[in-house]
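Students often ask why we bother encoding 3D structure as a string. The short answer is that it lets us treat folding as translation between two languages. Here is a chain of 76 residues written in the first language.
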Amino acid sequence: ALRIGFLCASGTPPATVIGPYWKQSLGAIGVELVLDVVDRTTYDSRVEQRDFDAICQDWRTHGEVDGYPVWHSRYA
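And here it is in the second language, the structure alphabet:
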């Protein structure tokens, strides 16, 4: 069976809501999601070192953002 580690910072929505939901949903199709909940300092360090299978992050901006140059492959 496929096993995926999901790195989360403790007390965040990925750790408390999203991760458990994905774990249950993926389990229904035979994928084991292992929640790896760590303190924020450890989380930041592991993200910087790219020491994870999967993470869930958000991106916040102030004001309007033109997404075209951010997401279009033309700018890759």
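Translate back mentally: The mean pLDDT is 93. Keep this in mind for the problem set.
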